[in-house]
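User: Can you predict the 3D structure for this chain?
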Amino acid sequence: MKDAVKAICRIWRPEWQGMLMGRLTYKKGNGENKAYEEIIRDGKLLRVAVRGRESGEFLELILSKPSAPKEGEKRPDEAAFWKSFSADEVRAYSKALGDHNEIHYTEKPVVSGFQIFESVMEEYPSDGMKISFHHPVFSGEEVYLMEKDQKIEGYTDQLCFVAVRS
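Assistant: Here is the predicted structure, written as structure tokens:
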């Protein structure tokens, strides 16, 4: 997956600063090693799709400008503690991938959607996964997971992301 993420980071545009990930879709390499990239702007949304040059992995993400925070679904009691990302971990991860979004380098950085995605994939391996982000996860916050069939829900105090394995 790192190959496809690095491909997205290579085409990063300064005007994307501060944008948040709305959805990320990943498919394991299919043997097609032809590099591919596509950027489509649709109003407030930005769709970026790449195929990793080395691995053939496909990664598509939807970015949007942050809007006023909405109160999300509260964490259920049955959700189990999963992990917490330190500010240093967030900054180091983003730097290693070449992710230039400033929101990952503040005093209390937003955890990269790529970092969350990769961590979920380590815990729940799959040939493909789609993850939708509902609320940012900040460094130092405790993240809880709850699995329902093929869905993995991630919470802090409220719903932050939903991953669906394919």
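The two ends are 15 Å apart (CA to CA). The mean pLDDT is 87.
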